[in-house]
Design brief:
It is a single chain. The protein has seven helices and no strands. The chain is an all-alpha fold and about 150 residues long. The chain has one domain. It is flat, with a radius of gyration of 16 Å. The model has no long low-confidence stretch (mean pLDDT about 90).
């Protein structure tokens, strides 16, 4: 008897389909604003589905990948606040999964705590990539002190 695909399998396939479509657009050099908005909306809808359930380690890698994809499209459209909100939520969800209380809502503290909490897990590289994206947003917003504060904590 064939079992229907799990939520994780369906969401993974949906993400892979969206990424494949983005690659096809890139090969066609189709980088129009409408296409970017559509892709960002599609990734954001998928992210809302994933975040509609409590954070769980089994879904975390996919969730963080979709956060990254969504944020890339938001930043491409100069929607830095939207991307930063998703990144903040991602750091908080990582901390929920790992059961760590950072003791502060400061974004630099959240990212340091999230990174430390996944240091020996498969999530480590995903969190590092999101931190790099966060630093890029801080740079575009001329928030060099935020990067300095983040570095000082290590």
């Amino acid at each position: 008897m064939i079992q229907p695909p799990s939520l994780l399998d369906r969401w993974t396939q949906e993400n892979n389909d969206l990424v494949s479509n983005c690659k096809q657009d890139a090969l066609k050099r189709d980088h129009n604003l409408f296409g970017q908005r559509r892709r960002s909306s599609d990734f954001h809808k998928l992210l809302r589905k994933i975040q509609g359930i409590p954070p769980h380690l089994d879904h975390a890698q996919l969730e963080l990948s979709v956060v990254y994809n969504t944020c890339v499209f938001f930043t491409a459209q100069s929607q830095f606040e939207e991307a930063e909100l998703l990144l903040t939520q991602a750091a908080q969800r990582v901390l929920e999964i790992t059961g760590v209380d950072p003791g502060s809502s400061d974004l630099s503290v959240l990212w340091r705590a999230a990174l430390k909490s996944v240091a020996t897990t498969a999530l480590h590289c995903h969190v590092l990539i999101l931190i790099c994206l966060q630093c890029g947003i801080w740079l575009t917003k001329s928030c060099l002190n935020s990067i300095k504060e983040f570095r000082v904590g290590f």
